[in-house]
Amino acid sequence: MKGKVKEAYDLGEMLEFRFTDQISVFDKVIPSLIPFKGETLCREGVFWFERASEMGIKNHFQKFLPPSGMLCRKVDILQPEEISSLSRSYLIPLEFICRWYVAGSLYDRAAAGEISSQMLGFPSGHKVAYGEPLPEPFFEVSTKLEKTDRLLGEEEALEISGLSRRELEEAKEIVLRIDEDLGRSVEARGLIHVDGKKELALDENRDIMVVDVYGTADEDRFWDRSLYERGEFADLSKEYVRQYYRKTGYKKRLYDSRAAGLEDPAMPPLPPEVIEETSRIYLNLYERITGSSFKPAIKSQHL
After folding, report:
1. DSSP class of residue 239?
2. Using one digit for the tens of pLDDT, what is the confidence trace for 165-192?
3. For 232-246, how does the pLDDT look when each residue is reduced to its tens digit (9 = 90+)?
4. What are the helix (H) ranges across 55-103?
């Protein structure tokens, strides 16, 4: 099974994930490869899963398969209509988003008046500024299995996922625990954790289990703290690539086409200098997340 940037191989009770050097933005795969991207993402995922286990948080990680693979527990992929309150061992078809700063689409929606300052925890009349810290973590839930992600209200999220209100609250608490640890960890190495998403599953006992990966340049947004304190927002994530396509006008063409119900315009490849800088960002972020120098792993001889 091949996703946008990750391949999955069914080994019976386990899955093998292989992280590729492909990169996607706006729910589209870019026709360019980023050197070492897959390996850095995989090894960052291993780093965070090992920390989650130390914190007593269940997750699907079993074993690192160098250079860019991991062995994980398998759960079923069920469509919403197949899920009930009795379903077990399945991927929750939601993405859990936790935001700590005003950035990305959150800022766009606030600037457009689609979301009020009060909804973000600010006092009435506050003018939301890009890059400012939120008074409290801001949670959102979006779809996972639809062609393009869309934000959900609580009632639809419960209906789609088969979760009870108690389970949904437990999911949010787990995400918050992970993010608090993540933020403290990277702060010590000069990073700010801005926002990110998590994917969760229910195991055979309907206990919540963290799946996929998190805390990486694909799933999360990081800023350089020293630059932030000087008023600069240096995105150490694939946000750099998103910004490139915004500047070229491709994002606007894409979203205008989608709004009109037209076919997506072809995505142009990245120029060599953008590929090189993106690879540098991934390598640098790996070292600042893990505190270890990047050395390419030796390919394992598994399977």
Report:
1. H
2. 999 999 999 999 999 999 999 999 999 9
3. 998 787 888 999 999
4. none
Which tokens go with 103? 């950035």
According to DSSP, residue 291 is labeled: S
On the CB side of 207, CA atoms within 13 Å amount to 8
Q: Which pTM value belongs to this model?
A: 0.88
Structural domains in the chain, sorted by start: 6-290 (3.30.470.20)
In angstroms, rounded to a whole number, what is the distance separating the alpha carbons of residues 263 and 255?
A: 10
Q: How far is CA 20 from CA 1, 17, 91, 97, in A?
A: 13, 10, 22, 24
Residue 192 burial (C-beta neighbours within 10 Å; 0-12, 13-18, 19+): buried
State the DSSP code for 59.
B
Angle at 238 between CA 191 and CA 248, to 5 degrees: 130
Find the angle CA(263)-CA(266)-CA(271) to the nearest 5 degrees: 160
Question: Would you give the DSSP letter of residue 124?
Answer: T
